[in-house]
Amino acid sequence: MTPSIPILSSTVRTTCPYCGVGCGVDARVGADGALSIAGDAAHPASGGRLCVKGAALGETVGLEGRLLAPMLRTGTGLRAASWDEALDRVAGEFARIVAQHGPDAVALYVSGQLLTEDYYVANKFMKGYVGSANIDTNSRLCMSSAVAGHKRAFGEDIVPGCYEDFELADLLVLVGSNAAWCHPTLYQRIARAKQERPQMQVVVIDPRRTATCELADLHLPVKPGADVWLFDGLLAYLAAQRAVDHDFVDAHTEGLADALEAAGRAGTLLDVARACGLDPQQLLRFYELFARTGKTVTAFTMGVNQSTSGADKVNAIINCHLATGRIGRPGMGPFSLTGQPNAMGGREVGGLANMLAAHMDLEDPDQRTSLQAFWDAPRMADKPGLKAVDLFRAIEEGKVKAVWIMATNPLVSLPDAGQARRALERCELVVASDIVAGTDTNALAHVLLPALGWGEKDGTVTNSERCISRQRAFLAAPGQARADWDIVCDVARRMGFAGFDFAGAHEIFDEHARLSAWNNGTDGQRRRLFDIGGLAGMDRAGYDALAPVQWPVRAPGEASARLFGAGGFAHRDGRARFVPTAPRRPANLPDGDYPMVLNTGRVRDQWHTMTRTGRAPTLAGHAPEPFVDMHPQDALLCGVKAGELARVTSAWGAVVARVQHGGGIARGSAFMPIHWSGRTASDALVGAVVNPAVDPVSGEPEFKHTPVRIEPFGVAWYGFILSRGELPLREAAHWTRIQGRGFVRYELAGRVPFAQAPAWTRALLGLGDGDDDADWIEVEDRSGGMVRAAHLVDGRIVSCLFVSRRQDLPARAWLAGMFDKERFTPADRLALLSGRAKEPGADPGPTVCSCFGVGRKTIEGAIRRHGLADAAAVTACTKAGGNCGSCVPEIRALLAQA
Amino acid sequence: MERQSLVVIGNGMAGMRTVEELLRLAPDRYRIAVFGLEPHGNYNRILLSPVLAGDKSVDDIMLNTRAWYADNGVQLHAGDPVVRIDRRRRTVHAASGLAVRYDRLLIATGSKPFIVPVPGHDLPGVVGFRDLHDVDTMLAAARAGGKAVVIGGGLLGLEAANGLLRRGMDVTVVHVTASLMNQQLDPPAADLLRASLERRGLRILLERQTAAIAAGAAGRVRKVVFEGGEEIDADLVVMAAGVRPNVELARAAGLHCERAIIVDDTLQTYDPRIYAVGECVQHRRATFGLVAPIWDQARVCAAHLAGSGHRRYVQQATATKLKVTGVDLYSAGDIVGGAGSEDLVLRDRRGGVYKRLVVAGNRLTGAVLYGDVADGPWYFDLIRNGTDISSIRDHLLFGQAQAAA
Fold first, then answer.
1. Residue B4 scores a pLDDT above 90
2. How far apart are CA B85 and CA B68, in angstroms?
3. Which of A312, A608, A795, B57, CA to CA, is 20 to 30 A from A509?
4. pLDDT tens per residue, range A500-545
5. Binning pLDDT at 50, 70 and 90, where does residue A592 land?
């Protein structure tokens, strides 16, 4: 049961811990202790908007499953340990391994979920004191191509624009971005802008026809991985159409000729269209639009970054903006949308293995020396460390003998997850700092350290538009949990390192701010644009009061919405670089054995590996199960059917998921969500399938392009369980765990025909032989292939099971309501296993609007009955879409079908 | 036209229902004479249990009073049983010496309780449960209090036991097989029934073979002795171990009988002038104990007696309800099933509900309901109509409202 939430304060302004939009959140703890979440109207990034994930944050802060004490692995399992014992173990082992094998035999693998202050000390610890740059982060998996592209073009990892540019643009190009689902509040800003100025053009470049395309004037379903062709073709077109801004190019850039020469290799417009799998007319329409529209923003995210050409894709996009001089001015510029809440903050403090703190360069000896002096560091890393995929290879090879993982779940998120598992299984020492106890990764850790979660921890994050915001604590630290920075500093001190005596996060931020101004452009050093010297010197109160601010902040009170509008790039000569980007194919191409291309990504209502969003019943309804979305024609060819299970196999691994259509998938492609792990499904770890090919420049894996084979996964029965408690599920070949309100739902399938009820049903619901007197209701039609059972205690339902040989199981929504009943009447008992209400129409259908829990059938019914014509009318009638609005595209689709 | 003579032997439910049907079809065709063993009009034998239990009075269960016979021109000879049929002379002879010629004869002699032929079966205090006289005997015994033993855990035995329990006796039901009502119930339903009856205060002894009934000092029944030597006290023994068709008269008249009087689809016996209906007939190997098929027989037989003989008797599935207050039990159709039949089962032991539906092909062929019998009639309709249930199979167990949803 949930322990009561400890209360520190009644109302706190903080920042959402999910995507890179970085929305402001008002967290209010009511008099009854209940937490209510609302948008912070004063936050510049979001203006009071929240998406459904943010709105459901209150459902994720319970203490079920939390890691509340340090744990040490013994021969038989885990045992609780004191902080002293656990940290002595970590410090002692790290010191021993460094002494015996050198500093590169240890590593940190951290996360964009960390706060800047956590990140800062972790990076300082490794790069200045342990003496190795073996600190990489899960940002490698999402943003490193953008980082590499920015650095190559601008000389520093800079996003030149701001969110307001999305509203001011006359042309908004969204490349590889399903913003409607992945950056919902920003998408809502765009939608509103387009509503006010219908002439604003939106072009979506994405292999999938995603929900984002609802807003698009033009959708270019580019062939997966072919974006460089598309933007090289655009650059060539701009040159040919004399759309190049020669004044800007001459004054502020270098290398256009080389870039054009490389772009020319993409061929003619027809060649480009063919390479991109696009209709030449459509492509030309986009090129013309781009060429003639000054105020153009090209926003990109994972579809661009997660590629073996990721950095080149970023530069191909930036090249077009440099050539037209459309950068850093209102309504123009390339814009990298960040995936995680603090990938940007991590990048600012050098959280990647090839960076130093404060945007200094690891490979620049002057900056290394300068930083060493600032830190008074004993042992500086002098060469880039191992990037994520290489790091886990080195662990498997035994070159890295100890790894400390913080706030991330690499066994789920890395490509070739089987390799990552082998690596951790062979690693001498795996330390994991986490807020939850049970993750796939933590199951292999030798030392588990309880960290603070959102609402408990205190520090800063930076969003996609360089806006630094405070995450503030409003809940007391649960159990023995400590802040990540505090844990790192404690280990550092135990290893004898000075420079880790911070009284609080504010002191770390202050050091970080001072460092950003340290030797910045003075003393012959390169001038770094990341400069927040104006924020230095804050005491705890000043830090606590810090309002969201966009860097650079060179002096107090300064803020910078846009950069590079008048040049001033971060290369020593102040000029931006065109980067020649010769197009190339993805690393692994489909062949006879693996004829389909698997794309991966997020779904609307889940976040990463579901350790937090997976707890929120509100978020479980939209996409309750792992799925593989594919074109109906391909499904036919593969012999799989919508609603049934399929096995998706690559050369690296296999998963099982339910087939669906409707995700706008082109022929030859398939899409799977990334969220499910061994904790939430039997066999849906997409990372196990994804190829580990990486971009040669950025080291970012090619998550969006893995050749796969899709085959039927034959089962003897389908079923589901709703249970108040967790169940072991030994009898099912396939299962998915879904959080319900007051219960857990398991979707099941079995390959062995079901055994004699009731022993079998009892075993599935976790009742032993000794429970003969249990209050047990059962229905069976064995030859008809149906078994249903329910277990009650004190007149309340505890669990129920529905199994059928066919795909004809009753709706889960109605049964879910039975878990609210305190006392079953005899009529309830009889109705329960029928699985449906006696009144037809009581089933709302699959959830469309998670905020208000409105189902598809409800909406369809309302449209039909009241003749509703638009989404606003649907909202007025059913409330659906009235809160976060992220389901509005789906409502529109339902209206179109009606 | 001169009326023909119709003689009816047996003033029970089958015979009189046939007469009623006949009067509706052809009121002027026959002079009708009815001979009955019992000195009453016709009463509803099915409701003897409620009379015994005190839920109904004798008047409540009368179907045809003496006045009815007079009003309808039917001559009633109650308490004057026929003792011989002279087929050659087409005459019946009654115990009183009365002889009546017939043009058509209807035999509706019913059945009589099977008295287990153990030593002591004829002692005072041993009764069957067939007629009002038996009820009077039991009520007299009940007034004296003491212990009753009911031999037979079928429908009749349990209703008798319940009645005696309600009349204040200490009642034990003795049953030869391992589960009660084994004609109508499967073992799980029988177990629920047993638990429920035991909660009500009945003692139930299963798998007991009665060896003897022993007399006490007064020459009345005192004990029931089982094989193996076990014995229990008894002041009253009710034999409810089944019935036997009452066919001595027909057999003596030379009518073809097997277990009962053989009739064809028109309820005609091997003598074209003689018809038979009710528990005394055998139609295609089957004999009858429940009321529904007997109503069907009466309708067919009456039609043929009326001369509009276009109907045929077709055996239909039957349904049973146990008339024990507070026990909801319903059984319909073929509950045993066979090769190729499939079971749909709902078990809710704590809730006291059990349902088993027997399906063969796409048809419902049998149903056993315990605890929740509201859908019994619906199942019975599905069984009798041979409805294709494949589209509602998954909802069948949950009843008509669910299947229609």
1. yes
2. 27
3. A608
4. 999 999 999 999 999 999 999 887 788 999 999 999 999 999 999 9
5. very high
Domain ranges of chain B: 4-112+243-305, 126-239, 319-404
Distance CA B39, CA A220 (A): 99
Instruction: With CB atoms and an 8 Å threshold, state whether A834 touches B347.
Output: no
**CA–CA distance, A627 with A674 (Å, rounded to integer):** 10
* Fold of the B4-112+243-305 domain: FAD/NAD(P)-binding domain (3.50.50)
DSSP lists the bridge partners of residue A447 as A72, A431
Give percent helix, percent strand, percent coil of chain B, each to the nearest 5: 25, 30, 40
Q: Do B4-112+243-305 and B126-239 fold alike per CATH?
A: yes
Residue A31 burial by Cβ neighbours in a 10 Å radius (0-12, 13-18, 19+): exposed
- What is the CATH topology of the domain spanning B126-239? FAD/NAD(P)-binding domain (3.50.50)
Q: Rounded to whole angstroms, how far apart are CA atoms A570 and A788?
A: 67
pLDDT at B201: 93
The model carries a pTM of 0.84
B254: helix, strand or coil: coil
CA B222 to each of CA A886, B139, B149: distance values in angstroms, whole numbers, following the listed order: 85, 18, 10
| Interface residue B349 vs chain A (CB under 8 A) | yes
ipTM (interface predicted TM): 0.76
From residue B210, how far is each of B213, B227, B228 by CA, in Å? Answer: 8, 6, 10
Of B362, B375, B398, B400, which to mutate for an interface test with A (greatest number of A Cβ within 10 Å)?
A: B398
Closest CA to A721 of A705, A738, A699: A738
Helix (H) or strand (E) holding B91: strand B91-94
Out of A782, A830, A840, closest to residue B353 by CB: A830
Task: Tell me whether residue B93 is exposed, middle or buried, using C-beta atoms within 10 angstroms of its C-beta: 0 to 12, 13 to 18, 19 or more.
Answer: middle
Q: Are B175 and B88 in contact (CB under 8 A)?
A: no
Q: Which helix (H) or strand (E) holds B353?
A: strand B353-360
Looking at the partner chain, which of B347, B395, B398 has a beta carbon nearest the beta carbon of A830?
A: B398
For residue B358, pLDDT beyond 60: yes
Residue A2 has pLDDT above 50, yes or no: no
Residue A309 is encoded by which pair of tokens?
């050409």
Residue of B391, B394, B396 to mutate when probing chain A, most A C-beta within 10 A: B394
Q: Are A381 and A103 in contact (CB under 8 A)?
A: yes
- The DSSP result for A613-652, as a single string, is GGG-HHHHSSS-S-EEEE-HHHHHHHT--TTSEEEEE-SS
Element containing residue A409 per DSSP (H, E)? none
Tally the residues of chain B.
405
**Coil vs helix vs strand at A682:** coil
Pick the CATH number of B319-404 from 3.30.390.30, 3.40.50.11270, 3.20.20.140, 3.40.50.1100: 3.30.390.30
Residue A795, classified by CB atoms within 10 Å of its CB into exposed (0-12), middle (13-18) or buried (19+), is middle
Q: What is the distance in angstroms between the Cα of B253 and the nearest Cα belonging to chain A? A: 52
Spell out which residues of chain B touch residue A829, defining contact as CB-CB under 8 Å: 348, 351, 353
The SS3 of residue A69 is coil
Measure Cα distances from B367 to B316, B359, B397 in Å: 14, 9, 10
Residue whose pair of structure tokens reads 């690393």 in the numeric block: A587
Q: Which of A231, A243, A217, A238 is nearest to A175 (CA)?
A: A231
| Shortest Cα–Cα distance, A641 to chain B (Å) | 22
Burial pattern A41-53, b for ≥16 Cβ within 10 A else e, equals eebbbbbebbbbb
Query: Positive or negative CA dihedral for A495, A496, A497, A499?
Result: positive
